[in-house]
Specification:
With about 250 residues, the protein is of the alpha/beta class. The chain folds into two domains: about 1-150, SPOUT methyltransferase, trefoil knot domain (Alpha/beta knot, 3-Layer(aba) Sandwich), CATH 3.40.1280; about 170-245, Orthogonal Bundle (Trp Operon Repressor, Chain A), CATH 1.10.1270. About 35% of the residues lie in helices and about 15% in strands. The chain has helices spanning about 10-15, 20-25, 65-75, 95-100, 120-125, 140-150, 160-165, 200-215, 220, 230-245, and strands spanning about 1-5, 30-35, 50, 60, 80-90, 105-110, 125-130, 185, 190. The strands form three sheets. It has a five-stranded parallel beta sheet, with helices on both faces. A two-stranded antiparallel sheet has the order 3-4. The protein has a two-stranded antiparallel sheet with strand order 8-9. A hairpin with a 2-residue loop joins strand 8 (about 185) and strand 9. Helix 4 crosses helix 6 (about 140-150). The longest helix is centred in the C-terminal third of the chain and has 19 residues, at about 200-215. About 25% of the residues are buried.
């Protein structure tokens, strides 16, 4: 899979993609990351790619013409998503990550300053996405987050594909708590059920904890999750505990 990143600061990506699973995926030719410097497509003798906004206002706006030339240089087909990272976009989530992971190529436009000229968005961009309700200095870090989330879904990137299925958001629920050695740490012990060797009990405990976390931390996710009768009964218990001013059930 190819990731094309249009950016003013390609150097920002070097350190992030030089470690961990992204580097291994690139080394193993599972993914290819192509950094495209928008300044290389400026026709200004000083390499400028921004200008003052029409109508006045603070800051600078990225011009449409260098971005358009950069996109044209990639020779992408109409099936390739062109993603613009912006606080005005729709929230990026696991479902969107899976959608991008099904593609052979994804282009990401990293905005900067006050954003990009709206005409490039209307004419070229297929997806406007946001990684959260906050403002960042530019779109480079959101682009990194998108690539990491998408790449790890590709076959050959993670060693254990089963671990993906258990993670938060894959089943519209938050993941259950995880524990490892030592058994006792600062007076806190690992829940005994995890040491029981009874996999049915362990699965039940994990499911309940996943429901519990989701209910108290992200209640909107419960509405989207596939719940059986046992899950619904437990959710009813959680609602009762919440009404009593508690924030969870005991082990």
């Amino acid at each position: 899979m190819i990731f094309d990143i249009l950016t003013l600061f390609p150097e920002m990506f070097d350190s992030v993609f030089s470690y961990g699973i992204i580097k291994r995926a690139a080394d193993n030719s599972v993914i290819k990351i192509n950094l495209c410097n928008i300044r290389d497509f400026s026709e200004d003798k000083f390499g400028r790619v921004d200008d003052y906004p029409y109508g006045g206002g603070p800051g600078m706006v990225l011009r449409p013409d260098p971005i358009y030339r950069a996109l044209k240089s990639l020779d992408i087909d109409e099936k390739t998503p062109i993603v613009y990272t912006t606080p005005a976009g729709i929230p990026f989530n696991q479902q969107k990550a899976r959608e991008f992971a099904s593609k052979e190529r994804v282009v990401i436009l990293s905005g900067h300053y006050e954003g990009v000229d709206e005409r490039i968005i209307n004419a070229c961009v297929t997806d406007e996405i946001s990684i959260g309700d906050f403002i960042m200095s530019g779109g480079e870090i959101p682009a990194m987050a998108v690539i990491d989330a998408v790449a790890r879904l590709l076959p050959g990137v993670l060693g254990n594909l089963d671990s993906i299925e258990d993670e938060s958001f894959n089943n519209n629920l938050l993941e259950y708590p995880q524990y490892t050695r030592p058994y006792s740490f600062n007076g806190l012990d690992v829940p005994n059920v995890l040491l029981s060797g009874n996999h049915a009990r362990i699965d039940e405990w994990r499911r309940r904890k996943s429901l519990e976390r989701s209910f108290f931390r992200r209640p909107e996710m419960i509405e989207k999750a596939a719940l059986d009768d046992k899950d619904k009964k437990y959710i009813a218990e959680l609602k009762q505990y919440r009404e009593e001013g508690k924030n969870g059930l005991s082990e």
